[in-house]
Predict the 3D structure of the following.
Amino acid sequence: MISYLIGTIQEINEKSLTLLTGSGVGYKIFSTVNILLSKNEGENMEFFIYTVVKDDAIDLYGFAEKEELQMFEKLITVSGIGPRSALNILSVSNVNNVALAVENDDVSLLSGIPGLGKRSCEKIIIELKGKLSHFIKVEKVDRNLSEEKDAHLALISLGYSEKDVNNIINKIKQDNPQAFNNMQASEIIKEILKDLR
């Protein structure tokens, strides 16, 4: 089974691309819309591959990130969700958002994906609930970066200097990183104001 390929993109089509490896073999790889739209012919690329062997063909599905491949493998374990549907899901939504939708029972985040009805969305949530939480590790960082950014902008708009605000944020992070990661913007502002006054 092919699990990894590296080479030069020879041709890009609507649903797939052809990757020419160093050995001179060209592989047709089905990939996400993001990759097909953002890459150019002649560009070097590496893919984490999932191989599907059928009676009349061997299909390769390629992903730029190992995490995408792992999510793809989880999605195709759901009854009624084939490789093409799983690829459509990852073309429309990222790994983090799919995991969040499943773990939070949020059908709306999955609806609107081509070829995926409401029943299929519900099936994904039922069958994968509790199995995707490890994909959400990015969420906490993203949430906190957003809270930090909001606090930062609020204080700058109140007239405090960017240098002072940054110094105090860094000091709070160093003193108690765990507590800082769980702070709302309003709590970060309160902590910063203690030092600015």
Observations:
- Residues 138-142 have pLDDT under 50 and may be disordered.
- The chain has ten helices and five strands.
- Strands lie at 4-12, 16-21, 26-30, 44-53, 58-63.
- The longest strand covers residues 44-53.
